[in-house]
Amino acid sequence: MEGIDILLIISLSLISNAAPAWSIFSPKDYEECSVQAAKDAKNNDSLRILLDYCDTEFPARR
């Protein structure tokens, strides 16, 4: 359970840090969002979190 709590804190931290930076130059669609996520991600876990953020921002991407 402790590992899940740490992952949740890290996830929220990454999202809260990424979202304001993206609001200045916010992506126009899912593809731009995913490319930016790939550039910003430090590891696979953060990439997954950022892509989840893209999914919530662009739910009707296809």
Overview of this protein structure:
- This protein has a domain at 26-62.
- The protein has helices spanning 2-24, 30-40, 44-57.
- 77% of the residues lie in helices and 0% in strands.
- It has 62 residues and is mainly alpha-helical.
- It is elongated, with a radius of gyration of 12 Å.
- The mean pLDDT is 78.
Identify the notable features of this structure and list them briefly.
62 residues, mainly alpha, 3 helices, elongated
Write the layout of secondary structure elements.
Elements: H1 2-24, H2 30-40, H3 44-57
Helix pairs in contact: 1-3, 2-3
What is the global morphology? elongated
Could you give the distance between the termini?
36 Å
| H/I helix tally | 3
Record field, number of beta strands:
0
Helix content: over 70%
Instruction: Tell me the radius of gyration.
Output: 12 Å
Largest sheet: none
Mean pLDDT comes to: 78
Percent of residues in β-strands = under 5%
Low-confidence stretches: none
Q: What structural class do helix, strand and pairing data support?
A: mainly alpha
Task: Encode the helix/strand succession as letters.
Answer: HHH
